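re: ur question from yesterday

yeah so i grabbed the chain u mentioned. its 517 aa long if i counted rite. heres the sequnce exactly as i have it in my notes:
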Amino acid sequence: MKTKIIFCLIVLTCIKMFSQENDSIVYDFSKGVFEKNNISPQFGKSVVFKIKNINRIFYSPNVKGLIGEVVDETIGLNAPKTTKNSENPVPNSENIESEIIDKESKYNFKLNAISPQDEIKFGENIMLNKKFEYIPESTKSEKNLYKEYKKKLSALSIRLQTYVYIINKLNGSYTNYLEKINTPDLTYSVYKKIYDDSNIPNNIPNNSFETSVILNAAGHTDKYVILNKYFLCKTEFKDFLSSTELQDIISEFDNVQNKFASDNIRKEIDDWKNYISKTDEDISKMNLHQKLNYVEIVNRILLNKNSYEYISEPIQAYGDYLSFDIDIKEKKKVENDYIIFNSSRKFSYKEFVTGGMRLDFGVGVSLDFGHRDQKYSINDDTFGNKYLLESTKNDYTPKLVGLLHASRRSSNSVAFGFSLGTALDVANFDISSIYLGPSLLWGRADKIIFTAGPSFRKINQLNPQFEKYIKQEALPSNFDLDESKYVDNYKIGFFFSITYNLTNTQRGKFLQVQKGQ
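ran it thru and got these C-alpha cells back, copy pasting raw so excuse formatting
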C-alpha cells in the first residue's frame, strides 16, 4: 500500500511538472497600467497577452507579433439600427355630437380611461384590453348607433395609442441602452450597477441616473406581449373601420339627410386609417422584436466578467524575447455631439525569454599572456665571435578576435556562458590563436562579453638545432639568420578578451499554438 501511495505521488508530481499552463501578461485598460508583467517567460512555454476592463463593444484590440496579428472579433452580432419614435398626430373628430345626441347622454360611455396614476409599469402584468372595455347597448336608435360607434372608436384608439406609447418608450430605451454600452469607460462593475438599478422594484425609491427600462427583467415577457397586443389591436381597429356596421351608421344618417354627420364620420374613418397605416410603418421600421432579442443576448454577455477581457492566442517563444504590438482602436466614430475623451492606445511590449541555449558571435580584442614569438638577432662579442641574441621581450600581444559564445537565455542583464574562437593575424591574414574559456555576457539585446581562459597560440620559435648558438657556440661565418631558421609551434597560454555581439537573432521567434493542442 505504501508503495502505491508513493507511486501515485510521483505520477502527480510529474504531471504537474510537465503540464503546460499558459503564462500571461495582464494589462488593465481602464487604469492604463500593467497588472502583471516582467514574467520572464520560459523558453518554449506558451504566453498570452491579456487586456482586462475593456469594453469590447466600443474598442477593437489588435495584438500583432512577428507571426502576424490577432484581431478582436467581439460579439459577431450586428445591433439593429436605432430608429425614431412614431409621432403621427392623432385624428381629431369634428364636434358633431350636438347634431346627434344631447349633452346629457354624451358622457354616458362605459369607458375606463387612463388616469395619471395608471402609468405603464412593466412586471405588473397589466392587460390593457381589460382596462378599456367596450360594452355595447341593446337599443339601436340613430343616437344609440352613433354612441356605440364612439364608444368602440374611443376604446380602440386609446388602446392603440397606449401600445404605441409603450413601444415608443421601449424604442427610446433601446437607443439609450446602446449609448450606455457604447462608451469607452464601460466595465463590468459599471454595467452591473446599471442592470441592478434598472431592476429595483417599483415600490422602492430609485434615484439612480443610470437606469434602462429595456433591462427590466421582471417585465421582460410583457415587452413581447405588448408587441403582440399592438398587432391584434391594429388588426381589430382596421377591421372595425371597414366594418359593415359603420357603413350602416353612415347610411342611417344619409337616410335622415344628416350629411354633416355622415361626411364627418367618413373623414374621421379615413383619418384613423391613415394614422394606423403611418404608425404601423414606423413601428415596422423600429424592428423592436429584433432589438429586444439583441438586448437579451448582449445583456447576457455583458453580465459575464470575461466579456471585458481580451486574450490573445497562446504564443510560444523560440527566440530571445517576445514582442507584442498592441493597437486598441474605437470600433465606431464618435460624433462631435458627444463629449467623450479619446482613449485609443497604441504601444509595444517586450519580454525577454529565459531558458534554452543561445549562441552569440562577437568580435573584439584580446590579450595573450605567456608564450610569445621568438625573434633573434646576430650579436658580436668582444672577441669577434657571433652569437644569437633574443630581441623580443613583449609578454602581452593584442589581437583581433572572433568568438562564438554559448549561454543559457536569461532575462537578467548578466549571464554566464562558454566561448570558443580564434585570433586573426591581420598582417599575415592567418589564424594565430585558438581561445577556449568561460565568459560573462553583460547586456540584453546588445551585449558586451568578457572572456578569459587558456589559449592555444601559434608562436614562431627558433629551430631547436640552432639553439646551441645562443651564448654557447659561435655562429659559423656563413650563417644567415632568415625565416628558414624558425618553426611554428602551438603553445598553451592565457588570454583575456572583450567582444561585442554581432548576432542578428535577437528578434523574437514565435510559434503560435494551434487550437486543440
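noticed a couple things. The longest helix spans residues 142-181. also The chain has three domains: 2-78+309-352, 97-286, 357-501.
anyway ttyl
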